[in-house]
């Protein structure tokens, strides 16, 4: 498996990563163990999950168990910000710290290699979110930070804030891109390209969303 640097100053990761959104939902622990083992055997080192996956927490719990002693041999990424029911949602300083503590407990680890804002929080200034994430990086609980589902303008604004306030910047922007979802291509076409130095971390859900009958037509 080829390796690639994830963003400026980010970790070395496998060119293909494993999205863990089906763990704890479509897949039980035994199936999760099998998928993770197969991924490791094929040289995959990047495992991407989120607190919301697996019916709120299930994916992180199962992924942590499946990795076991392999934890230190992989780049472990998770996300925060979506509605976790009574636990809350968003990107306020208080919530970020609470969400991270819960994710670390479920994953059975003392740090995340990549922690990502899952979606913009209109109730919280982006500067407040970035400052809190910076503090978590400084504390060693998070090694690098990224974002997901932000517009090109929001990614550029985040980069500006980080530079102006000497904060840890987002090293990557995770976006859905597939035969069915082409928004990122349209952004490039109309000139609203993303911030230079913030690579796109592309994901797709072909196996979950595509109807085989549609592909045959």
Structural Rg: 17 Å
Helix content: 40-55%
CATH homolog superfamily: NADP-dependent oxidoreductase domain
CATH class: Alpha Beta
The low-pLDDT segments are 188-193, 205-217
Globally, the shape reads globular
Side by side, the strands of the main sheet go: 3-4-5-6-7-8-9
The number of helices is 8
The helix/strand order is EEEHEHEHEHEHEHEHH
Instruction: Tell me how many strands there are.
Output: 9
Largest sheet: 7 strands, parallel
Class computed from helices, strands and strand pairing: alpha/beta
Oligomer: single chain
Strand percent estimate = 15-25%
The rounded distance between the terminal residues' Cα atoms is: 33 Å
**Annotated CATH topology:** TIM Barrel
**CATH architecture label:** Alpha-Beta Barrel
Number of domains: 1
Mean pLDDT, nearest integer?
A: 88
Q: Would you give an account of this structure?
A:
The chain has 217 residues and is an alpha/beta fold. It has a single domain, classed as TIM Barrel. It is built from 8 helices and 9 strands. Strands 3-4-5-6-7-8-9 form a 7-stranded parallel sheet. The radius of gyration is 17 Å and the shape is globular. It starts with a strand and ends with a helix. The model is unreliable at 188-193 and 205-217 (pLDDT under 50).
Descriptors for this entry?
8 helices, disordered C terminus, 217 residues, TIM Barrel, two-stranded antiparallel sheet, alpha/beta
